[in-house]
Amino acid sequence: MFPIGPLSELTVASLARSDKRIAIDPPHPEPTPSGWFLTSGADLPLIPQRGDVECECLVVGAGWMGLHAARRFAELNPDARVLLVDAGRIGNNASGRCMGFVIDLAHNPRKKDFVEDIKGNKEELFVNLDGISYIRSAVEERVVDCDWDPQGKYHSAATDHGVEDLKRFSEALDVLGQKYSWVEKPEIQKITGSRHYIRALHHPGTILVQPAKYLKNGARALPSNVTVHEDTPIVGMTLDGSKHICETPTGTIRAKKIILCASGYLTKFGFFPHRAIPLYTFASMTRELTQSELAQVGDRSAYGLIPADSFGTTVRRTVDNRLFLRNVYSYATDFKTTEADVMKARIQQQVAYDRRWPQLSKMGFEASWGGLLTLAQNGGMVFGELAQGVYGAAFCNGTGVARGAAFGKAVAELACGMSSPVIDILKSRASPSRPYPRIITSMGVGFVTSMRFRQAGAEV
Predict the structure, then answer these.
(1) What's the CA gap between 43 and 91, in Å, rounded?
(2) Positive or negative torsion for Cα 121, 93, 222, 83
(3) Which long-range contacts (CB under 8 A, 24 or more apart) does 413-417 make?
(4) Secondary structure of residue 74 in the 3-state scheme
């Protein structure tokens, strides 16, 4: 049964494309490896797909959505052959390049309708909690090592206007009945070892993880009826109702069902063309700190700091004794970035490092990288049956770890004919609207991000 709500326009277009080959441009390779990936342990055995194979279900994309979609479909169909393919290496894809916050409730105190949209926030919390539960079950039942740390997150302010942002966020939490606690200047400076911060708000519920480690070990722990192929982009697709054909550089995959979890690249498969607003955000990682250096970055062995201003700097201190700093957003023309873009952002991360730990920052960084995220003009998302036997989930619009896991689990259940409260919520969401022409969108993103970056000031 095709959806009759937000995806109806898409469904008509999909049906018109049946039996016609769609050529698909593979993702651009990342110019630099992620620091998370470099410190995540042994890689999976590299087994690209070869030859002509058949399966019950093909899952495209092994990020937060795809990994959990493959797991859930395989759990529900233990006798079915499931293939999970990723165009690159698992853990070094967009999902493995995030900051590793598994967030239960999104954080956007500057958004005007954050407080007013009680129903939307409660539904988002419900969906995210389902995602967290599913991730937790992998950690506890499948023994997926990922540096799991349920300590929550600190929303940290370095300026008076940052403190005002935190106050607005606390008002939203009050309306939603959420627990939190204020962390005053002496305590946040003791936690971080940095005089930069003047106040913080601690919100429990968030889990800190090493994202690349989770994705790699989660792939290792998939049910035995899942076969994983890395370095396997889909370069062509022919939809045929009963058995779809997907082409790879070295073979073909014939699948009764396809689940597309390729984030903004879903648009390359012919669905919602030109609807994605692709952005890159950038991060840098220090080398492993020495014992004497660790004494200068606070009395906690690990923590996660969210900036009060969303254009400020996100910080992680990790269990392997490193600092990670993320800031800078840019429009990603054709879903790609360059090494020059990464190095330009690295300069801003060095500024943030200098502000927070001037006694350490001369060491610089060991690695810098970018990570892709996909937005929609209207905040819409993709979820549902896109064509007969073809399902998709995409456009997390940020904060995608818990949400991505929930999307992936739910879309696999939908593909198995199931229903659930999460599925009902996701099917009710608006689909991505068409943005302004690309040149206008890119200029607009550049202007807004530059302005907001300047306004953030010392929060960066």
Answers:
(1) 9
(2) positive
(3) 413/72, 413/76, 414/384, 414/385, 415/57, 415/73, 415/257, 415/259, 415/385, 415/391, 416/73, 416/76, 416/77
(4) helix
| Cα–Cα distance measured from residue 279 to residue 326, given in angstroms and rounded to the nearest whole number | 14
How is the chain split into domains, by residue range?
8-459
Bridge-based pairing of strands 277-285 and 367-375 is: antiparallel
| Cα angle 88-94-95, degrees, rounded to a multiple of 5 | 105
pLDDT of residue 4: 33
Q: What does the pLDDT look like over 229-238, one tens digit per residue?
A: 999 999 999 9
Strands (E), 118-241: 153-157, 181-184, 199-203, 207-208, 226-229, 236-238
> Where are the alpha helices (H) located in 285-338, listed in sequence order?
291-294
Neighbours of 150 (CB within 10 A): 13
Residue count of the chain: 460
Provide the CATH topology of domain 8-459.
FAD/NAD(P)-binding domain (3.50.50)
Q: Which helix (H) or strand (E) holds 55?
A: strand 51-60
Residues 283 and 270 sit within 8 Å (Cβ to Cβ): no
Enumerate residues 6+ apart whose C-beta is below 8 A from 334.
28, 278
Say how far apart CA 27 and CA 94 lie, in whole Å. Answer: 11
- What is the rounded CA–CA span in Å between residue 110 and residue 98? 22
Q: Mind listing the pLDDT tens digit for each residue in 52-83?
A: 999 999 999 999 999 999 999 999 999 999 99
